[in-house]
């Protein structure tokens, strides 16, 4: 992959934080910033995926609830009465 150098202006406290975290991760400043940017750019897609999955599961839950409400009376009419438990 071709690499292009860029110049960024960052506040000194932010740069110190980047350098500290990059050191802990044993990464160069460039590698650390590259990973951070890649992660940030990947998050919107993940957030959208989670939103869609949540929407699908909510729809399934609503369908299940509607089916239960529709068929519960039928099931209760066709089942034999439950045996009574003896009290001790």
- Biggest pleated-sheet summary: none
Q: What percent strand?
A: under 5%
H/E element order: HH
Rg value: 29 Å
Q: How many domains is the backbone divided into? A: 1
Structural class: mainly alpha
What distance separates the N and C termini? Answer: 77 Å
How would you sum up the global shape?
elongated
Helix content range: over 70%
Q: List unreliable stretches of 5+ residues.
A: none
Report the mean per-residue pLDDT as an integer: 87
DSSP strand tally:
0
**Treating each run of at least 4 consecutive H or I residues as one helix, how many helices?**
2
Please describe what this structure looks like:
It contains two helices and no strands. It has 88 residues and is mainly alpha-helical. It has one domain (12-77). The longest helix is centred in the middle third of the chain and has 50 residues, at 29-78. The mean pLDDT is 87.
Question: Which tags fit this structure?
Answer:
single chain; mainly alpha; 88 residues
Layout: helices, strands, pairs:
Blueprint: H1 12-24, H2 29-78
Helix pairs in contact: 1-2
Summarize this structure briefly:
72% of the residues lie in helices and 0% in strands.
